[in-house]
């Protein structure tokens, strides 16, 4: 999921429970239209791979993601700006207030996505 703030989402994609999120993250990044005011993109460590970081820089963003602890060539990142990533986690927590989302009883992805959209609308009101 890509969020603009802790109250609004830009977009999301569902991935399989056994699949790694980075492949879906690059696909989602392709769908985002960059606004000139947006300079940084805050990412979880799951997205710290070279391909994802390169893709964000190609789109004109500066990636703010800490390197994994076992990385041979770690990079510097803005630690203060990275603290804002908790807004994304707060957005997920608000969506998980809906029992149907956190338990995922729906078998079809289309129904599950529909309820996520519904929860986003209700949360925005």
UniProtKB/TrEMBL annotation:
<dbReference type="GO" id="GO:0006313">
    <property type="term" value="P:DNA transposition"/>
</dbReference>
<dbReference type="InterPro" id="IPR002559">
    <property type="entry name" value="Transposase_11"/>
</dbReference>
<feature type="domain" description="Transposase IS4-like">
    <location>
        <begin position="7"/>
        <end position="117"/>
    </location>
</feature>
<protein>
    <submittedName>
        <fullName>Transposase</fullName>
    </submittedName>
</protein>
<dbReference type="GO" id="GO:0003677">
    <property type="term" value="F:DNA binding"/>
</dbReference>
<dbReference type="Pfam" id="PF01609">
    <property type="entry name" value="DDE_Tnp_1"/>
</dbReference>
<dbReference type="GO" id="GO:0004803">
    <property type="term" value="F:transposase activity"/>
</dbReference>
């Amino acid at each position: 999921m890509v969020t603009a703030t802790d109250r609004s989402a830009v977009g999301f994609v569902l991935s399989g429970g056994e699949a790694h999120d980075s492949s879906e993250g690059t696909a989602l990044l392709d769908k985002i239209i960059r606004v000139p005011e947006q300079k940084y993109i805050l990412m979880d460590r799951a997205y710290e791979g070279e391909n994802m970081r390169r893709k964000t820089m190609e789109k004109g963003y500066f990636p703010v993601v800490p390197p994994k602890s076992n990385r041979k060539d770690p990079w510097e990142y803005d630690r203060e700006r990275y603290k804002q990533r908790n807004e994304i986690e707060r957005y997920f927590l608000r969506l998980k207030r809906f029992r149907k989302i956190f338990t995922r009883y729906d078998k079809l992805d289309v129904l599950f996505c529909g309820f996520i959209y519904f929860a986003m609308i209700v949360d925005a009101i």
